[in-house]
Design goal:
- This protein is an alpha/beta fold.
- It has a single domain, classed as Rossmann fold, CATH 3.40.50.
- It contains 10 helices and 10 strands.
- It has a 6-stranded mixed beta sheet, sandwiched between helices. A 4-stranded antiparallel beta sheet has the order 2-1-4-5, covered by helices on one side.
- The protein is globular and about 50 Å long.
- It binds adenosine-5'-triphosphate.
- Adenosine-5'-triphosphate binds next to strand 2 and helix 2.
- The site of adenosine-5'-triphosphate has 11 residues, from strand 2 and helix 2.
């Protein structure tokens, strides 16, 4: 049994779930006119998980992500964050309550350096000390680029800067939308190690992702969406070895 499997078991067993879920979704649905894109989803994310949400194209992953971040309002159902309903809260209200969101496209200010980006995001928390900025710069491998304009960073380093900014808010839940899209294999692996390091430091993380190798690297649990419903949910090794999960990617199911 690998270390990864052991971690899966620790995350997967009901005994580990004494703490209330970070997120609890019940009966969540989203319809756009007649298009029923998300249908009656129930899901819980527990403290210290890295939950990957996967599924074939059009499964509803982005729509589900947007329901959790507040970009979309549900047509039906409930979303509890740390036990409290956030169903009608706007994104900034969810962020204030401890959700931090990194979208797929980096949102970088062209006129600011890496250091200034981190100063600005830490400023909102009142913890914008030199030590805290340095710690983020080290952790996210931005030391050589600290005083460069962020707009000139590689795509990979822009992603890491955005992740650093998201983490600087000391969230209870970090939400990542395809964090390795467009990254090289090496950058992808390093991003996975950064994410696992954040989890080891106590963060709970939800990731919408396409890259299965990356999902195997980081996920403690996996939720598979298909046709806007939960098709499978459980420990990473178990879910990813299921034949019917492979079949939906091949269009057989
Ligand atoms: N605003 C909308 N109005 C109507 N249909 C929509 C809307 N947004 C998404 N859809 C449809 O909902 C379905 C799910 O889309 P969504 O983008 O959530 O899937 P996804 O799993 O993220 O796909 P991909 O992996 O290709 O990004 C698709 O068929 C899409 O066309």
């Amino acid at each position: 049994m690998s270390l990864h499997d052991t971690r899966d078991m620790a995350q997967g067993l009901p005994a580990a779930s004494a703490a209330p879920p970070i997120i609890k979704v019940s009966g969540l649905s989203k319809h756009f006119g007649g298009a029923r894109v998300i249908n009656d989803i129930d899901m819980e994310i527990l403290d210290h998980e890295i939950r990957c949400v996967i599924g074939p194209n059009g499964a509803g992953k982005s729509t589900f992500f947007k329901l959790l971040t507040g970009e979309h309002r549900p047509s039906a159902g409930e979303i509890l964050f740390l036990g409290k309903s956030i169903r009608n809260d706007l994104p900034y209200q969810r962020i204030r309550q401890g959700m931090s969101i990194k979208f797929q496209i980096p949102g970088i200010f062209p006129e600011l350096t890496v250091h200034q980006h981190l100063e600005l995001s830490l400023y909102q928390t009142g913890r914008n000390s030199r030590d805290n900025i340095d710690e983020l710069i080290e952790r996210f491998k931005l030391r050589d680029d600290a005083y460069r304009l962020a707009v000139n960073l590689s795509h990979g380093k822009k992603q890491w800067l955005e992740m650093a900014m998201a983490v600087s808010l000391s969230p209870k839940l970090l939400m990542l939308d395809e964090p390795v899209a467009g990254l090289s294999m090496e950058e992808t692996f390093l991003t996975g190690e950064l994410i696992k390091g954040m989890q080891e430091d106590g963060l709970t993380i939800m990731v919408v992702e396409h890259d299965m190798k990356f999902v195997r690297q980081i996920a403690t649990r996996v939720t598979v969406l298909h046709g806007g419903r939960v098709f499978a949910d459980g420990m990473t090794g178990e879910v990813l070895s299921r034949e019917d999960v492979a079949d939906i990617y091949l269009g057989k199911s």
